[in-house]
Design brief:
about 250 residues; alpha/beta; Rossmann fold; 5-stranded parallel β-sheet; EC 2.7.4.9; transferase; nucleotide-binding
Amino acid sequence: MFRKWSFSGHSSFVIKTLKIIYIYCSLTRNLFYVNLYKCFQVMVQYYQWRNAMKNLLIVFEGLDGSGKTTQIDMLYQWFENKKLKVFTTKQPTDYYRNDKRVRDYLDNGIAPNMYSIALLAAADRTYQITSEIFPKISESNIICDRYLYSSLAFFKARGIDYKEILMINKGVPTPDVTVFLDVPPERALDRVRQRDGKDIKYEEKNELVFNQVRQNFLDVLPKNALIVDSTLGIDKVHQIITNFVSEVMDK
């Protein structure tokens, strides 16, 4: 599937531009940008043949405590029951989650430079896309727990402008299906506190932050996103999601 891609119709131009950057960076021995070019080159090559594929990239977004894990597990089983290949993954990866700078912020709210954490999240996403999503999508549907929209929602609440977040995440593929599980922030917080007890994250102690993140999600989600009231009940939400996915698959 993947009918709408940001590089559609412009991939050759992008490749030429990146080659110029690559040559310049090679001459100046700027290895960081040389490696960054290589990652983007893989992405562009991917865009060139991806439209022929029939598998879906499905991403789930929502506040912590919105029920993403449950619905992802149920959708995975739905694909299995239909004898369709499916693979689950998540963003960010454990590499990002276990980084000391990230842990200091999540646990204690300590963040000397929030932009550096946003850069780390973008690099982690690029690595996960090139190492997991790209190799798998040709043979399997993919369900991803969180995606670019989480970075937009959370880092905007942490003080970084949308444009800056998008800039450092250029080249991220557009999903076929985006599911946002909507839940009142106070209810999500109650679920998280019941689940995690004393181990709740710094941001999970503040309902105002949860309210802001939810609003940010609603601001940045694509127009074709499926927004589901996750308080409707597990089975009802699952039915809404599978009906939507089926419609996309039939197009």
